[in-house]
Design brief:
Distance between the termini: 86 Å
Order of helices and strands: HEHEHEHEEHEHHEHEHEEHHHEHH
CATH topology of the largest domain: D-Maltodextrin-Binding Protein, domain 2
CATH class of the largest domain: Alpha Beta
Largest sheet: 11 strands, mixed
Helix content: 25-40%
Shape: globular
Number of strands: 11
Length: about 350
């Protein structure tokens, strides 16, 4: 009997050793706006025998704070969503492992802001002012072209924006004004904008869906700080077939601010090889071509094809504003504090 039990145990252990292992888990921390097609995620999971778990952690700033606070016991293996307004803070906090992905060869140099390859570019989008076409036609009013136009009396009370302290598009718009007017003059512009009735709300959803008068919103403001991909988004997401977008984008030189989003492997990961594969996957053609209609951003991979709606309805600003990430890092908090004092108090 004892001999039988001994051989049965050996046989059981043998079967356990030969049995196929279940998928391992790879955790990816993201901002709340992350989205990808189920078929695309499934393709990576099946190819690598892995289960992806996405940990949505607030907007880009909140997600970065969480990654920094938990860096000694990281909650995830990979972190996606840091943008160029927070890039230096992420790098200074030493949360990433460097990884020179072979997919970087397919990415334009203009998006590679981290020479140490800790934060790798995934996508970009331009924060611009979106306008309600019907409003300006029905009021026989030209669409504003420049930042200076927004403080003219004919555009009084027409602009809604997000608070830079709580919203990444709001912060991006603040950066555009700093780049355009300079660090010594931008607050004067904001005081003029306040006097002209700019409306400030906490976040993008409130600005776009509550205050904006365009087709997705029914509010009083025909101008909203949003994204240059809004025209395509309105057509794609419309409940009835549209042949033209009801909204357009202000694209004058320096009126938009380009946001670039990055992915990196978090220090402390127990799944380094899989994390590298997932970074490669995010930078690869399949994921890059899926992003535009999932998150309404542009791919950075030069081989990725854009959806027809992006080609037909969107325009990319020729001269978006940009600031050195290091300059942003050293001044961001003060700029927000000074803006708050000038505009909200």
């Amino acid at each position: 009997m004892k001999r039988f039990c001994f051989f049965a145990t050996i046989f059981t252990l043998f079967l356990a050793g030969c049995a196929p292992k279940g998928p391992v888990t790879l955790s990816v921390m993201t901002h709340d706006s992350f989205s990808a097609s189920a078929t695309v995620i499934s393709a990576f999971e099946k190819a690598n025998n892995v289960k992806l778990v996405f940990l949505k952690s607030g907007d880009a700033g909140a997600a970065l704070n969480r990654a920094i606070l938990t860096k000694d016991a990281p909650l995830a293996d990979v972190f996606y969503g840091v943008d160029n307004t927070f890039l230096s803070r992420a790098l200074d906090s030493s949360i990433y492992l460097p990884y020179a992905s072979p997919m970087l060869a397919q990415i334009s140099a203009q998006f590679k802001l981290d020479s140490s390859d800790q934060a790798l570019p995934v996508d970009y989008s331009d924060v611009c002012i979106t306008y309600d076409k019907e409003y300006f036609v029905s009021h026989n009013l030209p669409v504003p072209v420049t930042l200076e136009d927004l403080i003219k009396p004919e555009y009084k009370n027409m602009l809604v924006m997000e608070n830079p302290a709580t919203s990444s598009p709001g912060l991006a718009f603040l950066m555009a004004t700093i780049q355009h007017f300079g660090t010594n003059a931008y607050l004067g512009y904001w005081k003029s904008l306040r006097a002209n009735g700019v409306v400030v709300v906490d976040g993008w959803e409130t600005a776009y869906y509550t205050n904006f008068s365009g087709s997705s919103g029914h509010g009083p403001q025909p101008l909203v700080v949003s994204y240059a991909t809004d025209p395509a988004a309105e057509v794609v997401n419309a409940t009835t077939l549209l042949t033209d977008s009801p909204v357009g984008s202000m694209l004058g030189a320096g009126t938009c601010f380009r946001q670039i989003e990055f992915v990196g492997i978090l220090k402390g990961t127990k799944q380094l090889a899989l994390a590298r594969k997932f970074v490669d996957f995010m930078l690869g053609q399949q994921f890059q071509q899926d992003m535009p209609l999932q998150m309404y951003v542009y791919p950075v991979n030069t081989t990725a094809k854009l959806p027809d709606a992006f080609v037909k309805y969107n325009q990319v600003p020729a001269q978006p504003a940009a600031l050195d990430p290091a300059l942003i890092a050293s001044n961001r908090d003060k700029w927000i504090q000074d803006w708050t004092q000038a505009v909200l108090h």
